[in-house]
Automatic annotation (TrEMBL):
Coiled coil start-end: none
GO cellular component: cytoplasm
One function term, GO molecular function aspect: aldehyde dehydrogenase (NAD+) activity
Species whose genome carries this gene: Martelella mediterranea DSM 17316
Pfam families (UniProt xref): NAD_binding_10
Protein name according to UniProt: Hopanoid-associated sugar epimerase
Domain NAD(P)-binding as annotated: residue spans: 14-108
InterPro entries in the cross-refs: NAD(P)-bd_dom, NAD(P)-bd_dom_sf, NAD(P)-dependent_oxidoreduct
Length: 338
């Protein structure tokens, strides 16, 4: 029997994306053989060549079922790019994953979002808070989670982790962090989407991926539907991320501009992305802070890279030149509530 056949197999849907790529790396580091689905594997970056790539489409059930054969878990990290056709594509892709997981007797790992929550549960929603979203995207995500609960009730284990806005670890260039600085040019200005004095929640993708991997290690001790909140970095006044970027840049007076929210309603009728941005504007105007008590009760701590290390790495990944510093370090002890 080959080494590959002795390894547990993880099917990662969305392995070329931010969260999918980060989770694939975390599982690979734990000894998993990573299998991934892509419509055209021949065009992929050579750095991903050590994964087993299967040609296929997440919208085709037979492709997903074929890729999932022999897999212990499926990470569902695939979404329509740019929020295009969410209402038409999200649920069919999820149904394909559920069908494949049932056929392979595999568990599902799923990244939840904050869009599920409305203002009625602010500022401290917990894992069991009512989900009354204000947006179309939020309504879709509520339907997604309801379907995952049904799948868990029918016997397919689901591990769901909800987190704030992604940064670092391969997060998309059009992420909110990517909007704060310009890639591949000298760092001369920060554009801050936050409202001064209003908190905002961020998730460093390598830490979130490590959290998924650690929960997966304990899958046998978890309920069929295991849902957790990832605290990550909570910017309590909307300025701490800005100050971290300033510290990394070496310029404590680096210019800060407000995000041009005034332009978003003007562009929304013509651009799908701007329409979606407008819908989640409330998450930048009102504080929401997900605590991680339930997660810490299971893991003992939440993986957390020191903020400046995480920000430095995130900046370097998008091509921003910053002063040299020590390599990233992972915090392994108990989580601070400071």
């Amino acid at each position: 029997m080959s080494d590959m056949n002795r390894q547990p197999v993880a099917l990662v849907l969305g392995a070329t994306g931010g969260v999918g790529g980060a989770v694939a790396r975390a599982l690979n580091d734990r000894g998993y053989h990573i299998r991934a689905l892509n419509r055209d594997p021949s065009r992929l970056d050579g750095r991903l060549a050590h994964y087993e790539w299967i040609k296929g489409d997440a919208m085709r059930r037979e492709d997903v079922e074929n890729a999932a054969r022999g897999a212990e878990l499926i990470f569902h990290g695939v979404n329509p790019p740019g929020y295009k056709d969410w209402d038409r594509l999200v649920m069919p892709m999820l149904e394909n994953t559920i069908a494949a997981a049932r056929l392979a007797n595999a568990r599902i790992l799923f990244p939840g979002t904050i869009y599920n929550f409305g203002r009625d549960v602010f500022p401290y929603p917990n894992e069991e808070s009512p989900q009354n979203p204000h947006t179309r995207k939020g309504l879709i995500r509520v339907a997604v989670e309801e379907r995952l609960r049904e799948a868990a009730f029918d016997g397919t284990q689901v591990i769901l982790v909800r987190a704030g806005d992604f940064f670092g670890g391969g997060a998309a260039a059009n992420s909110w962090f990517g909007q704060m600085v310009k890639a591949h040019v000298p760092l001369t200005r920060i554009t801050n989407p936050a409202t001064p004095g209003v908190g905002h929640q961020w998730a460093y993708l390598p830490d979130l991926a490590e959290t998924f991997a650690a929960l997966n290690d304990r899958a046998g001790q978890l309920p069929k539907f295991a849902n957790y909140h990832f605290e990550g970095f909570y910017d309590a006044d909307g300025m701490q991320m800005v100050e971290a970027i300033r510290r990394i840049s070496g310029d404590p007076k680096l210019k800060v501009s407000r995000f041009p929210w005034f332009a978003v309603p003007l562009l929304a009728p013509f651009m799908t992305l701007m329409r979606e941005v407008l819908e989640v504007r409330y998450l930048w105007k009102e504080a929401m802070h997900m605590k991680n008590d339930k997660l810490v009760a299971v893991l003992g701590h939440e993986p957390r890279t020191p903020l400046d290390t995480a920000v430095r790495t995130a900046l370097e990944e998008i091509g921003v030149t910053v002063p040299r510093a020590a390599a990233p370090a992972m915090l392994k002890g108990p989580v601070s509530r400071a």
